[in-house]
Design brief:
By secondary structure, the chain is of the alpha/beta class. The chain has two domains: 99 residues, Rossmann fold (3-Layer(aba) Sandwich), CATH 3.40.50.10860; 139 residues, NAD(P)-binding Rossmann-like Domain (Rossmann fold). Strands 2-1-3-5-6-4 form a six-stranded mixed beta sheet, sandwiched between helices. A six-stranded parallel beta sheet has the order 9-8-7-10-11-12, with helices on both faces. Helix 8 links the parallel strand 11 and strand 12. Helix 1 crosses helix 9, helix 5 packs across helix 6 and helix 5 packs across helix 9. It is globular, with a radius of gyration of 19 Å. It starts with a strand and ends in a 14-residue tail after the last helix.
Length: 272
């Protein structure tokens, strides 16, 4: 009988996580005995909780908000992407007992764009928000040859920190305040802000949307997210939420842990 591999996702809150369903689906399709749990872990208990999980025989751990930067500080060995973004969503242990870490968020987003036939080369990209999610995906976007990337945030200082960190990757990276009128017509608008999901008002410049634009919201829900609904109401025809990115980044984590690449053809109906 094959040994059951133990995995988990940790965060706070985490009970809403779809990761157990996604990873269980991957394991079933590939015939790998796996258990995958969602475990509530507070920031203050991160270190002791992760050490305990690895001591209990967990092979890999996914990390969600608000623990990604804690995982970055904790790991013994970081991938280049994790180093650059200062963010980690995947932890695992190897035979040398070291804790290894990677972030699959950026690569997962790019894979979902490819699945949706969205070619980033030459696009004018607008990123809304400058928090941890923006920091995790910006390097991957810049490395796929867009025309330009503009990071818009309520507090321009936070966006400027990302500009400073990533300006060496692309010579056409800029920032703006969300209170300013936008001076260009974005081809792709990526919302990394959770304002709508948290029930807060969505305040963005009125002129960011056009019917030719593509809108991608990193948030997801069983129906449309508030940001997708807003974009549709402004005449945008191509609107996507982040469920595809969630599945793709999960597949990359699963592959790191098991050395097997799962099929990512999952529908929303299977998850909600």
């Amino acid at each position: 009988m094959k040994e059951i591999k133990k995995f988990a996702v940790i965060g706070s809150p985490v009970k809403h996580s779809l990761s157990p369903k996604i990873h269980s689906h991957f394991a079933e399709k590939l015939g790998i005995p796996v258990s995958y749990e969602a475990i509530q872990v507070e920031k203050i208990n991160f270190l002791s909780s992760v050490q305990e999980l690895f001591e209990e025989g967990y092979s890999g751990i996914n990390v969600t908000l608000p623990l990604k930067e804690e995982a970055y500080k904790f790991a013994d060995s970081l991938s280049d992407e994790a180093l650059l973004s200062e963010s980690v969503n995947t932890l695992w242990k190897q035979d040398d007992s070291l804790i290894y870490a990677d972030t699959t968020d950026g690569r997962g987003l790019i894979k979902d764009f490819l699945r949706k036939n969205i070619e980033l080369k030459g696009l004018k990209i607008l990123i809304l928000g400058a928090g941890g999610s923006a920091k995790a995906i910006t390097p991957a976007l810049l490395n796929n040859n867009p025309h330009s990337v503009v990071i818009a945030n309520r507090t321009i200082e936070k966006a400027e920190l990302l500009l400073k960190r990533f300006s060496s990757l692309h010579d056409n990276l800029h920032t703006m305040s969300l209170s300013d009128e936008i001076a260009f017509k974005p081809d792709l608008i990526i919302n990394t802000s959770s304002a709508g999901i948290l029930g807060q008002d969505i305040e963005f410049p009125d002129n960011i949307f056009s019917d030719e634009a593509i809108v991608y919201d990193l948030s997801y829900s069983a129906g449309n997210t508030p940001f997708v609904d807003l974009a549709l109401s402004k005449g945008v025809k191509k609107c996507y939420d982040g469920i595809g990115m969630l599945i793709e980044q999960a597949a990359l984590s699963f592959e790191i842990w098991t050395q097997q690449r799962p099929d990512t053809e999952l529908s929303k109906d299977m998850l909600f």
